[in-house]
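Example 3.2
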Amino acid sequence: MRFAAITAIAVGGLALAACEKAIEAPFDPGVCYAVERGDEGEAPRFNKVADNQPQIEFCAARLEEVRLRFLRMGGSRQEITGSYQGQFIFIDRGGVWYSQTLDGGRFNAMARTGDGRLAMPGAIQRAIDGTPIAVSANREPDPTAPPAP
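Structure, written as tokens:
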């Protein structure tokens, strides 16, 4: 009897959780949004960051610009959430992550190099302990090239 009651309560809780409406990202073609999560019980706000973005990577670059601009103005938030054509974008110190849902599993799209730039994960060389190494170095200037204006 007690097992049946506990099972019924658990099934009822799962049914209610399944009925909760999932938050969907807007699917406006080429529009990049920054997502501000609302307080407990409030829906998130989608603020337009840029139009005419041809790919999700360009939207991630615009969101990274926003994140860095806020940090330069004295902000302390290291993470920013955005969306592009139905996908959610998460940017933090580790890199860029994509997800179909706001709270679901995330796919690593870009990682940070040793000097903080973003690169595709397969392009980053790592030291034996797993720390990233810069993917390129500054080239020496060509002595035969004309001076820059």
